[in-house]
Amino acid sequence: MSEKNTTHKEPFLRVSKRKELTPRQSFGLKMISLLLALIAGGIFLAVLGYNPFVIYGTIITGAFRSTLAVQGTVKIMIPLFISALGVTLAYKMQFWNIGAEGQIIMGAIFASYFGLFHDNWPRPLLLLVMFIAAMIGGGLWAILPAIFKNKWNTNETLFTLMLNYIALHIIAFLRDGPWRDPANPGFAKIATFTENATLPKLFGVHIGWVIALILFVLVYIYLKYTKHGYEITVIGGSKATANYAGMNVKKIVLRTIFLSGAICGIAGFSNAAGSDLTLATGVAGGVGFTAIIVAWLADLNPVGILIVSFLFAILDKGSSVIQSAYGLSTDCSDVLEGIILFFVIAGGFFVRYKFVMRKKKSPEATSEAPDMKGGEAA
Amino acid sequence: MSFLIKFIVAAVVAGTPLLFGTIGEIMNERVGHLNLGVEGMMSLGAIAGFMAAYRSDNFAVAIAAAFLAGAAGALIYAIVTVTFMANHTVAGLTLTIFGIGLTNVIGFYYLGMSENGTMKLPEHVTSQMRSISVPGLSDLPVVGELLFSYNPFIYIGIVIAILLAIFYNRTQAGLNVRAIGENPAAADAAGVHILAWKYVNIIIGGGICGIGGAFTIMITNGGVWISDCVGGLGWIAVALVIFAAWKPVNAIWGSFVFGAMRILKYYVNKEVIHIPDAFYDMLPFLVTAIILVIVSARQVRDKAQPAACGTNYFREDR
Amino acid sequence: MSEKYAIECRGISKRFGGKVLANDKVDLQLQYGEILSLLGENGSGKTTLMNMLSGIYRPDEGEIFVGGKEVFINSPVDAMDLGIGMIHQHFKLVDVFSAMDNIAIGTPGKRVAPAKLRTKIKEICERFGLEVDPDKKVYDMSVSEKQTVEILKVLYRGSDILILDEPTAVLTPQETRKLFAILKKMRDDGKAIIIITHKLNEVMEISDRVTVLRKGKSVATVETASTDELKLTELMVGHSVDLSIRRPETEKKEGVLKISGLCVDGSDGTRALTDVSFEVRGGEILGVAGVAGSGQKELCEAITGLMPFDTGSIVLEGTELKGKSPFEILNLGVSISFVPEDRLGMGLVSSMGITDNMLLRTYYKTPGYFIDRKPAKEMADKLIDKLKILTPGTETPVRLLSGGNVQKVLLGREIEAAPKVLITAYAVRGLDINSSYAIYDLLNEQKEKGVAVLNVGEDLDVLLGLCDRILVLCHGKITGIVDAKTTTKEQLGLMMTGAVKPAEDAANNAAKAGEEAAHV
After folding, report:
1. In the predicted structure, residue C288 carries a pLDDT above the cut 90
2. Mutate to test the interface with A, among B103, B286, B292, B309 (most CBs of A within 10 A)
3. Alpha helix positions (H), C112-266
4. DSSP alpha helices (H): ranges in chain B?
């Protein structure tokens, strides 16, 4: 046959499997990825003509420069943290729910109904009802794709994606029609909540942060120490195994996805009743997508989610300061988040694989004739 | 009659950016990569196309720049998912967030440098993107308007779709590429250069998405820069791929149908049929969700997603 | 070096994960016009070596010569350019493509017109006695049809060096004979063929020479005519082995598991089992033989409640299982243990450690909302000790363990449940001889305890040696239940293809033998 191969050399670089890294080594890897991402982001800033050190410095000081700034940072963190906890439940089961955005919106819509039309109820009762309504709204919106996934294995990624936009247009519909604020004839918007329907503040920030911390503890325990948490891990490993173990997989999927959506719904409630004090089309504002990134960066670990969502909140808050101070768009935070994630997920490669450089051949390896085994053996 | 023709023409124009996005995504999914970064790549194409047109005053340069920017975004995605074998969903989402973010940062940057805080392409550039008039043909009644009254983007899109269909169905390389999306191990064992073809398809697909993004700013917005100009079209394109059953030719009429849904609200007599605008805006997403369910319930083998879509391939994992 | 060798490997080494030496200075020579068997246990490095010849892996050390010239095979393309064609054990075919399109994938040059391609495929088929419909979609094909397509892929490209990886594992004895006839035709045509196998009788039947691998080393190359199965085994295992499998006599207990008129629809909606009736008695191992996909999986899953059915009944010690969920069956108190075919995909969770995997079938039994890991940890330690499971610790993800250790974890857990019925599917697939015999011993131990064991297997020699009776499935129907002591492999093979029902008297014999055994 062809002889062209006789001159082929081994490629300069190739991929090979390695012994899997330990969790501690993986963490180190992540830190290296993060560092490289910050360097890459710095180069990007330098290309735009900014001093990266100044910009990075301003982001950090911007997020902490005053009590007000710290409160602002925490306020950004609340919905991100809550919804990242929510999507984690789904992702642990390998349910590729990217519908957190829609679930946040539906939670907000359900809560707003009571906030707008039953604001004569006593405040604690009203807030409690809004809280529960938000969970139901977010949960139901999430359970819809799960039902179809159970029945026909409908692709949940694309389905939840569509539901995000449908939810968004539902708000638009309510704003333009039935829930339109009559006090504002010129401009279509939904009325601002009365005080009864808004979350009280603690240390200057609405108590969404307390809710978030309680959820954090609950989700942590739920995943790690309860039978439900165990079931979620097993289903995430293999549905066939879960069936084999006698688990009612469909039921568990529905239950978990409902919870996942319900938690995202709480984020919607906290945003509407804590930050916006009304139902706005921007109630989710991309948080649902960023939450997925947060959850992923944190390896679906609640403690990691706490840290990563805090870092992202700093980035977001700091970027708004950058805009006012240096005229650099606040979207800068999205760019930096993107760069960080690209580096970290690409870095994940090295947990299981490595690149191998071409080795130089030693001359003696080729000169020695191999000893011929066999023939006379046996 | 003329009302209907106007509607169809408008639907085709509204569907064109979707056509580009859909073809780009088909090219991705056909090599097994579910790329949710269409929105991001379209955004990158929009800013690059706009800035190139703004600086060069040349339509062709703008298209080339849009293509290159979309392709550059796709290159990042390809490096992360093909070489570094990262999760497709997360990488795609990141590309979208990154792409939109970068687009807005650059747009904001140049807006800040402009004189009055707005950027608009000069008239002699936009005129190059006007509808082409084919002597003799465009003047034909009905047919002239239906078929020969469009801007150059639309013809480019249709030609790309048809070429891609021929590539998949008639060429050896096209067969190889389809095999990669269905079963990379089979393609690899048969000697197909998996990595190279994945890169090529993802990058060209991204470039095509980029052209679609340029359309949104140069045609839909009439050459005036606004941020978030793609406005969710990339996501509809991802949905359209399902509607088109991963076939480029279906993408042509599919995107025109979805284009019709986008503009329906302007053509329905509001006195007769009273439905809030929000429902029209919701329509493409609602229809896609329903199609998604129907397709999954019917389970037609030939109309399913390429089997390996969303998974990574490493040769030594047998 | 000699020009006459089609392939010559010198000192090939390959390391995985930095530690495991899969190939250690392996030497191998293959001539044109011969069939060479590459013999070795599971895990001895046969497939690794062949994957290096076909460009899937790259050797860390050593040289490969093809036709006397040193070559570097970096990818399957390089291998194909050198005329090396590999027929993989796990078929590499695109399901939604036709046979023809599958053959055409990756071929150099322009796309060949379908009519021309069809003619060329027919020509090759006639020349070597193959049969295939070029327009048939792969998802409609049987296992042996798929294998034919794999062989055609290689022949179509004009490869003159063929490597077949365990080609007979999924075939009936009759299909195997047909394949061997085709291979011999190819050899007489001047092609060089390597056949990878661990079945000794096949080595003796088909090959001209044998190269034996043991623990990644090439220990010997011998002329087939000058050796026998016993010598080969010694070479393969490294010491003399008693190849016979123990079959203890036990007292049989009637009425443990009774299945009658069972019909099951598979997951794709087609009928997978039709009117299946049989009984598994306590203290016996009932083997299940059949071509892959004859309904074995559905049978196991119907009994364990994983696959619902409408017609027929499954009665376990007087309790009807029909309509019960796996959970209800687990909770009956009369336990059924099940070692499924897909160990890491069904029997265990690959990302979990042994402890958490121990919990799988019992976690819900403890009271309260929280999970109790303490007893599971104790059980994990006990199993590691008792079954000599090699693992860095109880919390190491089981996917990092070797195949034999994974199976010990799974079977160990299932046996710990003190079952009345034990169902095992392909219990020794992929395991080396020592591990396999350890598993046989565990099954026999259960049998002696009076457990009713249903053992689905693929190696007919093992089934004949280990089981008391063998049930043969063909297209979801029982073609016979025979006494393992009096049946031959050929009879089983014919029954597997549905060609022949067991002779009247053979069936009677089996029944009688069964009765006798029951009365012992």
Report:
1. yes
2. B292
3. 114-128, 143-156, 173-188, 200-206, 229-237
4. 2-30, 38-56, 59-78, 88-113, 123-126, 143-147, 152-170, 172-182, 184-189, 194-215, 233-243, 248-267, 277-298
The domain locations on chain A are 78-300
**Stretch(es) of chain C classified as CATH 3.40.50.300:** 5-237, 253-516
Residue C376 burial (CB < 10 Å; 0-12/13-18/19+)?
A: buried
- Terminal CA-CA length for chain C: 65
Residue C518 has pLDDT above 60, yes or no: no
Q: How many CB atoms lie within 10 A of CB C222?
A: 21
- Which residue from B178, B157, B155, B168 is spatially nearest to B24, judged by alpha carbons? B157
Express each pLDDT in B243-258 by its tens digit. Answer: 888 999 999 999 999 9
Alpha-carbon Rg for chain A, nearest whole angstrom, is: 26
The whole-angstrom distance between A133's CA and the closest CA on chain B is 24
Q: How many CB atoms lie within 10 A of CB B120?
A: 16
Question: Which numeric CATH code is attached to C253-516?
Answer: 3.40.50.300
**In this complex, which of C77, C86, C105 lies closest to B179 when CB atoms are compared?**
C105
Find the CB nearest B94 among A16, A155, A338.
A338
Q: Which of residues 146-175 of B touch C (CB under 8 A)?
A: 170-172, 174-175
Binary contact (A293, B278; C-beta < 8 A): no
**Using beta carbons and an 8 Å cutoff, which residues of C are at the interface with B?**
51, 54, 56-57, 75-77, 80, 86, 88, 90, 92-97, 101-102, 104-107, 109-111, 139, 153
- Which pTM value belongs to this model? 0.86
In this structure, whether the domain defined by C5-237 belongs to CATH 3.90.1580.10 is answered with no
Alpha-carbon gap, residue A114 to A116, rounded angstroms: 5
Domain architecture of chain B: domains with CATH: 2-317 (1.10.3470)
Above 90 in pLDDT, residue B309? no
Interval A198-238: pLDDT, tens: 888 888 778 889 999 999 999 999 999 999 999 999 999 98
Q: Which residue has the tokens 């293509």?
A: B67
Instruction: Calculate the CA A240 to chain-centre distance.
Output: 27
Do A274 and A111 touch, CB atoms closer than 8 A?
no
